[in-house]
Amino acid sequence: MLKPLKIIILIIAALILQVTILPAYLSDPFKPNLLIVAVVYIGFKTGDLGAFPAFALGILQDCFSGIYLGLNGFSYLCIYFILNLTADRLFTDNRYLMVFVVFLATLFNGVLNLLLLLLFPPINSIYATILPDLLPQGLVNALFSTLIFSFPAVNALVESK
Amino acid sequence: MWELIKKYKRHIYIGIVLLAAFVFYSLNLKNIEKETLFERVVLNIMSPVNRVISRMNNGVTDIWNDYMALVEVRKENKQLRESVKILNSRLIESHESAIANERLKKLLDLKNSLKAPSLAASVIGEDGSPWFKTIMINRGESDGLKEGMPVIAADGVVGQLVKVVAKSSRVLLITDHASSVAGIIQRSRARGVVKGKGGESCTLDFSLAVEDVKVGDLVITSGIGRIFPKGLNIGEVTMVKKGEYGIFQTVDIRPAVNLSRLEEVLVLLQEPTE
After folding, report:
1. Which helix (H) or strand (E) holds B236?
2. CATH 2.40.10.350, domain B32-274, yes or no
3. A77 and B125: CB-CB below 8 Å?
């Protein structure tokens, strides 16, 4: 009971940091996406029960980002399923693996968002915004996940199951 | 048949869940400017928290800026910048009035374009992703705001309200890819649609290649669509490119408002047209 509560508190703190505090000091594309770090954790650690939380995180991201509800919901769900299917083949207790996967997940999220936005709404030029920012975003998210996973409390969560 | 389903049940489950998420996303595309129940609940819960944190954040940055940096110089700088902004906007307004008079409006009731009442709001949050350009303000339905209302700042146009909940709202900035504002070049009266390019700039789309547009021209709202009142400053032309073929020219615009450092905005309380 205490562990899910700790996770919820961490997610709310991450959302506040991402939407209110960090934008005052960092400009695009160096503002981190902290929710994707949570999705990577859910993908590796929560087994089959993580689909709904991953989707919920995506919808939460959509409430504060852009105007397309469901965009990040779908892409976070895809990230979760890919990680869930590969989790048993990897040493998921390793912090460095988590950081590397956060980087890859950011790139994948960006590409998938781009595909979804090109498919439906008439925004053809958005590739010019998303593609150049993908690599910096991936690196920034990886950097922040390094900081996040060095906190003992978070590290304990990562190394437990 | 059942054995096949049992064998692939995990893949079938994943496929069904992903399809449901995809359908959810595509169904919500019809209603991108209106908030859903989930968004309403989340924004209503988070907006007081954002407000408090934003105030604390402003306090911290004020302490840093006022005491760690040069106190008096910063104060003087701030005052001078405000004066320049006010003087510049007066200059644009009077030039626009002079042009309107010269064109001899035949209508007897010449209305001031900013007669609509307005409401000040503070910015309490920014977009959670670098690919979209929205901000959150601390006013909502309880203050009389509705989706579609225009948002401006001292220097010019900021954007339009989308997703309004009880105590907060999200503003789609003019630099977002989904934003479009009817614009006109103040000097030559060439018309177009100002669309966001992401980043910090916009383009003037559908501007015919024969139209007279030069770098440095001011772009203002044309009032078409009755969303933004006529004559509001949008930005300045920074690049004009006319191709050898094609009927339109490419025009880049730098917004008049520094959208990355917005702190206060004004919402025009005029009923959006359906």
Report:
1. strand B233-241
2. yes
3. no
Q: For the domain covering A2-159, report its CATH number.
A: 1.10.1760
Selected residue of A9, A67, A125 to mutate for chain B interface (largest B Cβ count, 10 A): A67
Is this prediction's pTM over 0.80? no
CA B109 to chain A, closest CA, distance in angstroms equals 39
What are the tens digits of pLDDT across the range A38-80?
999 889 888 888 899 999 999 999 988 888 889 999 999 999 9
Q: B21 in contact with A at a CB cutoff of 8 Å?
A: yes
Residue B255 and residue B238 in contact, taking contact as beta carbons nearer than 8 Å = no
Q: Are residues A74 and B134, on separate chains, in Cβ contact within 8 Å?
A: no
ipTM of the complex: 0.77
Residue B139: partners with Cβ closer than 8 Å, 6 or more residues away: B119, B121, B145, B167, B168, B169, B267
> For residues A142 and A103, is the Cβ–Cβ distance under 8 A?
yes
Q: Do the Cβ atoms of B173 and B199 come closer than 8 Å?
A: no
CB B157 within 8 A of CB B266: no
